[in-house]
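Entry 12.
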Amino acid sequence: MSKVKHQNISYSSGISIAATAINSFYFHGIDYNAFLSSGFSKLIPLLSKPNEYTVLHHYLRDFSNISEEVDVMYKNIDDLSELFDFIKRVLKEVELSPNLNQPNYDECEDEFHRDCNCYPVLKQWMDYVNENSKLIDESLTHAAFQVVFLDRKFLHDFHYEISKKIKKNAIDMDKDDKINFTQKNGFKRCHFPVWMKKAVFYRDKGCCVSCRRDLTGYFNVSGTYHVDHIIPLKLYGNNDPSNFQILCDTCNTQKGARTTVTNNVSVPFWNLELEEYSKTE
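Predicted 3D structure (tokens):
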């Protein structure tokens, strides 16, 4: 992958999708009927080596369905002007600007805008969303990924769940799929592309996830770092980019392939002493 380009991120909608996906995971686990609708073997290319479109994208995609969301709002809200505001906001987030007229709600006498001249105009906007739903959903999925990728504890739990599925399916796996496996049925170690190593390094703020040692080389001359599988390959982990973290030499050696240790410790934008803050309320 070439140099990472700055791009617009639809954070508002992405955060909503991320929260829904995380809550669904912890309350219901992974819906494998949806997640693996095309069969487990289709996930092997995503799990065997790092891909820009990760297995986490694949999971989050099931929670991004703009056409369905618009349809549900249309059927359940009273005032359709609220639906138009929602559509307009989402389209602006994903940088789509349809050449369409806007409903004139201010001069409309219909309280809910369902039996007036506003509706045909809104219908054009709804049709535009449906026509561009794939592009919108992919954009919102990638925005949700930016949020969830920061949550190493969720990444641990997510990949631990997948590791159980890998272990269960490894026995009956087709010969072609087992090309990506070692003799012990775990995924083979693979080459780590530069773009992935940089992404994990910057996500973890250049600090060892375990001991918090600075690994940037600015404050510590022994700043060598290791890209570590959160769920080790020997424990049926995988090579998806969302299954990695950075560790220093010492912590990487201690962790080895025996444990799945991680945490959500990071560097905030600033520290907030919650006890002191609560005294001011």
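Annotation: Residues 1 and 244 are 18 Å apart (CA to CA). The chain has a mean pLDDT of 87.
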